[in-house]
Amino acid sequence: MTSAVIPSVASGSSAAAPSSTPSGTGVANPSGIPVPSAMQMTYDQVVAENTRRVASNAALQLLRDAGNANVAPDKPLIPLPSSPSTGNRLQQWISAFVNLSPNSQAQGASVLEGIAGTAKNPANRPNTTSIAKTLFDSSKEIASSSGLDSTYNFGIHHFIQDLANAGEYCPLTLFSNKNTERLHREGHSLKRSKVHVNGISHHLLDLSQFESERDLDPLTWQEAFQRYLSWIADVGDAQSVKRWTTHFTTLAKDEAIRKNFRAILEFDIETRQNYALR
């Protein structure tokens, strides 16, 4: 940041001071150009120097926020001397502000605007981080048609519920997107077999019409168990939902799913079969 050059108190007088002098004897700015000590500075010079320090401190804070470790400490503000009897404070500030460099003026104005905003609403502190552009705006979305054709609009087919009611095993294959659509669109033409369970006759879906769940690929397995969990949420209690959610999420997170999915799938099938046949 370009430092402002503050005029000396009197024409021809020497205002030079060492960069490290006792307090009250001299003030040095970051550029190394000495400025008059606080006791020698006029009211306007103190205001201008404080404005420069506020801008400089704000720039240092930006460096700290960016993660820089070796950042110089903030410069303390110089106490204002008694205000002169002539002119008002606004005129005095403007007079001092015009002596700053354009860059310092811009930074000083930005900082002062933030301070003014904080004074009006303390909750709104100045934020120096960049704000990401909003990428998704619901006000610009168009409502989807209620007649949108999608397998996600299909619920669990009652053929699956019939299998469960009869105590039969429900393979995960029936819960895939492809077979869910097939059940709803072709259910009337699918073959069903007569089965006797505990002396009761049931007409149940013939599972030989569907591929074996041992042939599921990882993507179809995951889409199927998501729908399976939604079914468990409808027909099971809270403990059942928790148990099977844990079962599937644990298997899906296992690193072996990338290298040995067949072992994961076999364990899943065995677990669900044992549960259904108990």
Description:
With 278 residues, this protein is mainly alpha-helical. The protein is 45% helix and 6% strand. It has 9 helices and 4 strands; from the N terminus they run ββαααααββαααα. Strands 1-2 form a two-stranded antiparallel ribbon. The chain is rod-shaped and about 110 Å long.
Short description, anyone?
The chain is mostly helical and 278 residues long.
List the helices and strands and how they pair.
Blueprint: E1 27-28, E2 34-35, H1 43-65, H2 89-97, H3 102-120, H4 158-165, H5 177-186, E3 192-197, E4 200-205, H6 218-235, H7 238-253, H8 256-259, H9 261-277
Antiparallel strand pairs: 1-2, 3-4
List keywords for this structure.
278 residues; mainly alpha; two-stranded antiparallel ribbon; 6% strand; rod-shaped
Major sheet characteristics: 2 strands, antiparallel
Give the C-alpha Rg.
Answer: 38 Å
Strand content: 5-15%
DSSP helical segment count = 9
Low confidence ranges:
1-28
Tally the beta strands: 4
Instruction: Give the averaged pLDDT, no decimals.
Output: 75
Instruction: State the order of secondary-structure elements, H for helix, E for strand.
Output: EEHHHHHEEHHHH
Straight-line distance between termini: 77 Å
Which percent range fits the helix content?
40-55%
What's the shape?
A: rod-shaped
**Spatial ordering of strands, largest sheet:** 1-2
Structural class determined from secondary elements: mainly alpha
